[in-house]
Write a structure and sequence with these properties.
SH3 type barrels; EC 3.7.1.2 (chains A, B); fumarylacetoacetase (chains A, B); 6-stranded mixed sheet; 8-stranded mixed sheet; alpha+beta; Fumarylacetoacetate hydrolase, domain 2; 27 strands; homodimer; 386 residues; magnesium (chains A, B); 2 domains; fumarylacetoacetase activity (chains A, B); Fumarylacetoacetase_N_sf (chains A, B)
């Protein structure tokens, strides 16, 4: 195991015989935490099939566990609990409680505005004053590798006299970054920007699959519903925030200055360099560093009305899009709503996803001493509608 | 215990010593199901502090348990487990998984459209084609009797140069009916209108508190978020659908005819007669019979894209408003966004809720043989912002 392996230590859940055990990735092995953690102060939480109990223990326990792993792994005392990654199946590592999706990329929001509301301003008037978000469906968050069935639903083009029903013809991806929340708070309380760090356990790549035709017909006035709720895919390995200190960078300038509840000392962007692969070919390189809002601002906003947090909550950034055409994190933007098809290396072209298409999002981040972390990838393959 | 008591049998959760036990209401008593259910086929589920495990057992178990209660209670064999209602504290009877709020009242949607989008059509073009809905925050669903802290957030009037932050000045109620879901389904599957009945366990009154000023500023383009997520209050007693057969009535005519996936044999309205009380005074009598969409259509729509169900999911109808002014289920409508204040019996007036105000929603429904069921009420009192 290299120093970088010992620095990263992302958390996941693996199949062991007929059960699911928590695990931490150590290079090309997974450490079975249910076994390795027996007798430790975190044994009860580590014996669970999801991270929720560990998330509930809070940041001091997370730090102590991480230190113990970093000290104990090099001694070889845990080697008997290491399993080659090639031999393990990944499971969803948390029971997702409330899931909120934000909309934190200025370039994405501007592109979507220009496509869907061509006669108005690209950004809605509220966009630079608050991190826009909405609740999504937590029970359809699935782990990387899970097939995605093409959803059916209503769609209606502007010229159609009435809506029609059928499989979505505009199935899309959204390249996002998910943040896993730990530490429950009571209803009626608030988490400030500077307290948010105690509740953000880690980061995982996230694909918020979207049916653009279903979404376009349904979303006024109450927002996206069936266009999003059929599936969202989370990477199998969650990188702890503690491993991302070297990836923290200043935010883009926020103008106008946000209201005081969105300010604090702990404001940061993340230099995560995403790649979106369609059937193995890189079609986009969204730079997370361009995101407008800090994760801590998103969490402070989410709770400023007194909304409680639960261990296992998940919030995601919204689609990550840079300013360049080949940095856009959705096919909606990459093909400008299908009007500018992508040509792939095999000569085929795409506007939106076809049955059988596989999408993978991967990312790297700066690690300590000039090293480079590779985040757990998130992938999925489209199956035909049923 | 009367025949009507034995017919109704709503489910709840009560405090017993330091723990929470499931219970069924029998007239003015609560039957402790953890105690009474020992040794029965449902003992494990009945020993849990929430209904989720019972919900997971499905409709045959629900029917068998109900029959057993109806047969056993009159024998007196369970009398030792009856506790006077006055002596019990109610707890939230389910761990809410995904929570979806619909928008199924044509009168409510038309009123809101006329208030917020006066230059457009009152109903959006999609409204009569699909039951519009969105996901809400499940962790802030609280049980009747829980105080509600006035939320803070951003608001911006049309003439304001920039948003301001502070306690909501347009805190409102929404008189709704909630439907509790049982029986999990896999991601990628679909529940039809005629299968939906197997998944709708029961009905509970629901107050979806809303901060109209926060909502108005944030909701374009992704829908309501902090204007709703601070609290939603569920009645403590859930009336099983089996008790509401006599309350089922035909739906209002649906024109245009919905798409085939929204049709089936099991379409119904419910003749629930709601009353909204503000500080003890009835200010509205919303008739649920006027709702446009059947609960079975809402559930079929929710899953038509392959979204899975979990036992403990909750969906709500949206605000119940009749056509008459005094049948409107929100202060937004009753005072036409504050322009027509309500005068209360004590001589005071209201546009929106003031600190200290208490709101109760109660309802009756036709029972068997001309009897009248009284549903469990939902109430809450507004506490000042923190």
């Amino acid at each position: 195991m290299t120093p970088l392996d010992l620095h990263h230590l992302p958390y996941g859940a693996i199949g062991v015989d007929e059960s699911v055990h928590l695990a931490v990735r150590v290079g090309d092995h997974a450490l079975d935490l249910a076994a390795a953690g027996a007798g430790t102060p975190w044994a009860d939480a580590l014996a669970m099939p999801t991270l929720n109990a560990l998330l509930d223990l809070g940041p001091q326990a997370w730090a102590e566990l991480r230190s113990w792993l970093q000290e104990t792994l090099p001694t070889g005392a845990l080697d008997q609990h290491l399993v080659p990654l090639a031999d393990v199946a990944l499971h969803l590592p948390l029971e997702v409680r409330d899931y909120v999706d934000f909309y934190a990329s200025e370039h994405h929001a501007s592109n979507v505005g220009a496509i869907f509301r061509p006669d108005g301003a690209a950004l809605t008037p509220n966009w630079k004053h608050l991190p826009i978000g909405y609740h999504g469906r937590s029970s359809t968050v699935v782990v990387s590798g899970t097939d995605v069935v093409r959803p059916c639903g209503q769609r209606k083009g502007p010229q159609d006299p009435a809506p029609v029903f059928g499989p979505s013809v505009k199935l899309d991806i959204e390249a996002e970054v998910g943040f896993v929340v730990g530490g429950s708070t009571p209803v009626g309380s608030r988490v400030t920007v500077d307290e948010a760090g105690d509740h953000i356990f880690g980061v995982a790549l996230f694909n918020d699959w979207s049916a653009r035709d279903i979404q376009a017909w349904e979303y006024v006035p109450l927002g996206p519903f069936l266009g999003k709720s059929f599936a969202s895919t989370l990477a199998g390995w969650i990188t702890p925030m503690a491993a991302l200190e070297a990836a923290k960078i200043p935010l883009p300038q926020q103008d106008p200055t946000p209201l005081p509840y969105l300010l604090g000392k702990d404001l940061y962007g993340l230099d995560l360099r995403l790649e979106v692969l369609l059937n193995g070919e890189v079609v986009s390189r969204p730079p997370y560093r361009t995101m407008y809002w800090s994760p801590t601002q998103m969490l402070a906003h989410l709770t400023v009305n007194g909304a409680s947090l639960s261990s296992g909550d998940l919030f995601a950034s919204g689609t990550t899009s840079g300013v360049a055409v080949d940095e856009r994190g959705s096919l909606l933007e990459l093909t400008w709503n299908g009007t500018e098809p992508l040509t792939l290396a095999d000569g085929s072209s795409r506007t939106f996803l076809e049955d059988g298409d596989s999408v993978t999002i991967r990312a790297t981040a700066p690690g300590p001493d000039g090293s480079v972390l590779t985040l757990g990838e998130v992938s999925g393959t489209i199956r035909p509608a049923v």
